[in-house]
Description:
Two copies of one chain form a homodimer.
Chain A (H helix, E strand, L loop, with lengths): L1 H8 L3 H10 L3 H9 L3 H10 L2 H10 L2 H10 L2 H10 L2 H10 L2 H10 L2 H9 L3 H11 L6 H4 L6 E2 L5 H11 L8 E5 L5 E6 H6 L6 H4 L7 E2 L4 H10 L4 E5 L5 E6 H19 L14 H28 L1 H6 L7 H25 L7 H30 L2 H31 L9 H24 L2
Parallel strand pairs in A: 1-2, 4-5
Antiparallel strand pairs in A: 2-3, 5-6
Helix pairs in contact in A: 4-6, 6-8, 9-10, 9-11, 16-17, 18-23, 20-21, 20-22, 20-23, 21-22, 22-23
Amino acid sequence: MNRLNKRKIQRDPLTEIRELIAKRDWSSLKELLTKRPVADIADLLSDLDKPERVLLFRCLPRTLGAEVFAYLETTDQDSLLKELTDEETRSLIQNLAPDDRTALLSELPAEVTQKLLTLLDPEELKEARELLGYPEESVGRLMTPDYVSLRPDWTVSQAMEEIRRTAQSRETINVLYVTDAASRLVGVVSLRQIVLSRPGEKVRGIMRSPAISISAFEDREKAAKLMERYDLLALPVVDSQGVLVGIVTADDVLEVAQEETTEDFHKGAGISPLKVSLKEATAQLLYKNRVTWLLGLVLVYLLSGNIISLFEGTIAKMVPLVFFLPLLIDSAGNAGAQSATLMVRALATGDVKARDWARVVLREVALALALGAIMGAIVWGVAALQVSAQVGIIAGISMVLVVLASCVIGVAIPFILSKLGWDPAAASSPLVTSVADILGVIVYFSVARWWLGI
Amino acid sequence: MNRLNKRKIQRDPLTEIRELIAKRDWSSLKELLTKRPVADIADLLSDLDKPERVLLFRCLPRTLGAEVFAYLETTDQDSLLKELTDEETRSLIQNLAPDDRTALLSELPAEVTQKLLTLLDPEELKEARELLGYPEESVGRLMTPDYVSLRPDWTVSQAMEEIRRTAQSRETINVLYVTDAASRLVGVVSLRQIVLSRPGEKVRGIMRSPAISISAFEDREKAAKLMERYDLLALPVVDSQGVLVGIVTADDVLEVAQEETTEDFHKGAGISPLKVSLKEATAQLLYKNRVTWLLGLVLVYLLSGNIISLFEGTIAKMVPLVFFLPLLIDSAGNAGAQSATLMVRALATGDVKARDWARVVLREVALALALGAIMGAIVWGVAALQVSAQVGIIAGISMVLVVLASCVIGVAIPFILSKLGWDPAAASSPLVTSVADILGVIVYFSVARWWLGI
């Protein structure tokens, strides 16, 4: 029984929807859709072909439609907007939450944005222009003015009344904001606290003050860090006078945090931040964001090739040295890239702080010596067996030195960048490996020259 | 005025605290501490020396003390526990939220855990043993039994009564869980909905049903994904019979998501998951988790060195070919690592899905040809100028082919791993670069052999 049930649930909803569309059975379609979570409806929409997609979208009640729309990717939003009538578009835009509306207007092509702005009523237009006035990637672009504000001298039952009166159109009521007569933020209070307090109690007596808040001009990444650190469901946003101008909610911030992490991943592989999803990125954009590092590294390799030529005499005296050169520099590069990756991530999560540098670098020295020793021993063994004892000793000693240097550089660069106030993520693996490359060439042939006494 | 004020706030709280401790002014200390957020108090504690730390911790009210304790790193928790009396420890453990208690007991050394378990009363002991009975990294280890449950046939005002009665000891009341007589989960309802509904309305009429839920035995990563996708503040956890056994809250899941992301970063650089923070990791642990990949790669480089020796005849006929070998294989490795990093991250965030493979691979082919063309052109130019036209043509053609192959492999491996149900993050940069290494050697010398007709 249970099993049968499961199979029924797992029946492909797309097929079912296509059948209902073919039958023009709008009421069943509406019923089937509205009980699903927003994220699932959005997925279904983006899986359908264009004509079906519009039909399905029109089946959704207005507010649900707006929520689903906000969840779609920009390309799907764009294609849907092209199919809707002006009247439908107006209604859609009006039903979007203000922060989703800002996101939509700032992501669409400028001419589409202009057209959409003409569809808004004066009040909404003012709001949209204001939010769009904040710099890109600022907290202002992320916030919504849909919050409930209370006065400190209200009683809990007055507060409850205000919450009931305004809640319907507010994004969250789990946290409420207390402002003075000049609209300055003076505290926050949770719905939980309100519900659990006696009706006659004053808001002032139960609010948390001062409230943790952020300026609308701050970087949105800072909002994400604050909310994570203090486990906040929403963060109040203030202007330079301390006036409450909006709130940022946890769901928007999660998305920001995820985007920032993706950028860190990309930087780690020498890719400039894409700013759009990989699925939506054009081949041209990807080319532009990847080619810079690749060509830069080609130049590094050409340079290290030229350094090799400086040691032509040494090489001529002992050609088999060359056999172990790629092994040496690539292995050191890998070890250094490990160190840099560990450091960059630990600094990003706050796991390691700038003041910890001495302990971390010391541990890295011990660790690098141990790693270099085992790698050097293998190279020494193989080189001694396959070539000669001399090449074995030179390659083995060089391995220990180069692994040590690469690891320390890998750990140090992120620290130095973060001290300078730069993004430690710029200490990408390609940067570290190319430093290891040049260093490896110099160390290897210098050791050889010194050992051979030439 | 404002400026002065700011300076006062920015005065180092550590110095202030040390002064108050020296003066034995416990009441000022208590006042200074209790108005700070939990995360800040925890930071202050870990910055102090051991004797001061215990003194400070004893100033905190019991429940706040437990919250702060839960926020500390394992080493700090451990050192603090050693200083506390049995009575203080008992009170601390009892004041911890059940999920924090489980986390503490599972992270501490076994003998400390055993000692702590003896301090719990029978009811708490049962709860702790139950939560510890779930597999590591399972949802069961993360959940708390502290939720409010309602019955579907209660009215809103009955529900409100129950919430007021039980809320004090519950982790969250923003979401409430509706269960039937057999404790099976039948729906969820938000506090918002309760507050906004008429007092006489039935819970059944306003609850969302069926509720999105998860089994206690599922991987905790799946809980994180579900909550992110559906923007949930808390996720109900059920057993195989659908009985509600606990809830997982957003703050715990955020931590899990961050840990998983860190693991992906580490895998991308060929580091086995650490399971502890980098700050707490010993040099031995780091050695163990880094050395495997490094030695594996040393073997790959030795193998590619042996493949080179197969082409000894070709090299002997044209020695300068060797000059461009490292450039060729390293560049191709970098391009392939870019592709793999983009893919692994896009699959992890759900930005690209397995079914998108055809489009993504096709775009990658176009892109790789463009990247290979410019890189090949540079190598061709330099080689033709510095060595000979023949070496230029061979190196240029090889560059295009090897970049193409590496990029396609970089994109394909994550897809294939994810199709097989494995973790795409295993397609790390070191894996891709070592494949590019061997491939590069074979392609380069084969092209040379074919072009030179030998």
